[in-house]
Design brief:
The complex is a heterodimer of chains A (118) and B (148).
Chain A (H helix, E strand, L loop, with lengths): L8 H27 L3 H4 L2 H9 L1 H29 L3 H30 L2
Helix pairs in contact in A: 1-4, 4-5
Chain B lengths: L13 H6 L6 H28 L5 H11 L2 H28 L21 H26 L2
Helix pairs in contact in B: 2-4, 4-5
Classes of the chains: A mainly alpha (118), B mainly alpha (148).
Amino acid sequence: MESHRVLKESQIMKIHYITGIAAIFVVAVHILMRLIVPFELSLEYDYIIANYKNIIYVLILESILILISVHGFNGMRIILLELRQTKPWENMVTVVTISAMIALIAYGTRTIILANGL
Amino acid sequence: MKEIEQPSRNNLEGLKGWLNPTRYGWERISYWFQRLTGVFLLIYFIGHVYETSTIVNGQNAWESFLELTQTVWGHLFLIMVIGASTFHSANGIRLIFTHAGIGLGTPSRPDYPYSPSSLNYRQKSGIWIALILSAAAMFYGFNILFGE
């Protein structure tokens, strides 16, 4: 029986490239937010909380979280599949990387929501 | 239905082959760095998401966690992150172009000493640009973190 795939590997590579390129732009904005004020000041509690209350910045943070999680864990999946090519290994790697990706996005989103409410 | 037999893995080197630097050419170095920096950045990203989550526990929790990272070693680690992310981004853009067939040149007959036509000056320049940008970003980061 032919195994069912949600996405073709070529489509996954396009997602990998798009998330990588998009991440460069949003991470650049994130780093600029540290550099428009003296670096030490940019790490102060009140400044960070003010960042979390700015809705545009919150959207940027959430997009960084999603883009890098998808790109990073898919990259890890690609590396692991290069090392070994069997069906059980591929299935296990896919399940573990997608689960870790969802867990990290959920944990980071929790921080953004809670910090926004402080 | 007859099960398809899994091929023998005796001829595969796995991680050992991946880490063996004795047969490295330009593309191999770039391949290895891209993966190494990718794994390193993913580990940093997970740590960064955890580190920033301490802010929800209040100012004291945030400042005490920050003390752990605002050290000389913490700053040196951040400079490594800056270098790794710059190389990974610049080399990643080169790889996207390469995957699209841009910068590979035209196919040619393999003549001795069998230099691959795909590894032309454009590809080598791309790898050099990624390395130089990475060094420049690390220098800039060093000035920001240690310059005050």
